[in-house]
Amino acid sequence: MKKDFLTLLDKSEEEIHELLNLADQLKYEQKNGLPHKKNLAGKTLGMIFTKASTRTRVSFEVGMYQLGGNALFLSGNDLQIGRGEPIKDTARVLSRYLDGIMIRTFKQSDVEQLAEYASIPVINGLTDYAHPCQVLADLMTIREYKGSFDNLKLTFVGDGNNMANSLIVGCIKMGMNVTIVCPEDYKPDRKLIEWGKKKGKLTITQDVIEGMRGADVVYTDVWASMGQEGEAEKRKRDFEGYQVNLDNMAYTKPGSILLHCLPAHRGEEVTEDCFEEHAKEIFDEAENRLHAQKAILVTLMG
Ligand code: CP
Ligand code: NVA
After folding, report:
1. What pTM value is reported for the model?
2. Is 30 among the residues known to form the active site?
């Protein structure tokens, strides 16, 4: 049966560990000029984007190239999908040409439908609900900095949407304690909160200082996500105080790291000085998108 990568909820702990180990190996090989797995020779990944992207687009395209294959950028506006061609037809047509599809769009249900009708692997490159590729790179980065996931506390400060949802699943599956600090009206997905509380240690709070106290990893993301630009001003008011800065970072554990999926809005979810103090971690995290996604590509399409 073909494999997809739609959410981390579908992946077992074992599968996530295997992907992380493969990502580490691919990074090591690339950094040391060692013979690199070329097992995607002759294969093509189609990349459908109905939202903007810097990291996801470039890392998938470069990743396919480094693995010996090709990637095609397919803008949602230029595809017939943008003129109403059904996803289920697009899925069946693209399956005749390509070896895999990466899609970034709004609705998770569209990605699920694409995967249902495609006979080739489908990878979720971000929806409003989830960003599993980003969290795989985040887990890789956390393990690089902290050595293991044992007894770690990750605190996410911000909007409880795609990043918070996927961090809950990925971090709890790896055995970490997770705290989400968000305004009352911006909580993560209700079902994922229930899942997280049952499966591990998940705290949802509005208290920024208490949430960040003792954290090993702090994570933040924009207040207005792609598609929510019209709500930006309202969100600035609603998220006032939910900012990561050097003052509240002082409550975290010594040696704590700050991660950000990027792009960052300085002066909103994070201050300029705090971002720059943690720039090494944040850009290592961005780099790891490449290595983590190569592991996904090899596993699904190799
Ligand atoms: N973090 C992330 O997915 O970045 P892009 O939106 O640039 O792809
Ligand atoms: N929450 C952000 C993440 C960007 C990588 C968005 O959806 O725009």
Report:
1. 0.98
2. no
